[in-house]
Amino acid sequence: MDSGKEEITWDDLESHPVWHFDPDTDLFKPLINLDDPIGSVDELHFRAIFTCPNGQELLGSVAGDGTTAIGIFRNGRWYAANKNWEDASWGQLSKLVEDSSDLIFTDARQLLPLRFRTEIGIEPFIEWNGVFDLN
Questions:
Q1: 2 domain-assigned
Q2: Which of 30, 51, 59, 121 is least surrounded, with the fewest CB atoms within 10 Å of its CB?
Q3: Rounded to whole angstroms, how far apart are CA atoms 66 and 60?
Q4: 1 lies in some domain
């Protein structure tokens, strides 16, 4: 039996586009079917593609419906943003801009709002899109 992972990588999301974070064990496990027990949709992480206001695309994941928490995978690491931790999120997005010389931004606020679309591609899950913003 798979014991789970403390952190998922982009390779993990490419192999399994839906992961369940179990708050009781603090571990991630791939969600194979909808019969697997979960406490809340907010515990699910879905592979996603983000589009910046200038049209540049970023790879990452959305948690739950994607309106509260996201992760962007870039430069070999995760940058997280969560509406419940606005100051820390701005710090993460600022670090993303600082670490990414190819992004055409001088300030993290230029990244938002981020449009996203899930990239799941397996039954019975459906694709959806939305917008993430800290405002």
A1: no
A2: 121
A3: 11
A4: no
Burial degree of 50 (CB within 10 A; 0-12, 13-18, 19+): buried
Residues 63, 132: Cα–Cα separation, whole Å: 11
pTM: 0.92
Counting residues of the chain whose pLDDT is more than 90, the rounded percentage is 81
Instruction: Count CB-CB contacts under 10 A for residue 113.
Output: 14
How far, in whole angstroms, is CA 25 from its chain's centroid?
Answer: 20
How many domains are contained in the chain?
Answer: 1
Amino acid at 41: V
pLDDT digits (tens, 9 = 90+) for 84-112: 999 999 999 999 999 998 888 889 999 99
Asked if residue 114 is part of any domain, the answer here is yes
Tokens at 113, concatenated: 């709002």
Whether 74 maps to a domain, the answer reads yes
User: Strand, coil or helix: what is 10?
Assistant: helix
Range of the domain at 103: 10-132
Rg of the chain's alpha carbons, rounded to an integer?
15
From the first residue on, what is the mean pLDDT of each consecutive set of 10 residues in the chain (135 residues)? Answer: 84 95 94 83 95 96 95 96 97 96 90 96 91 94
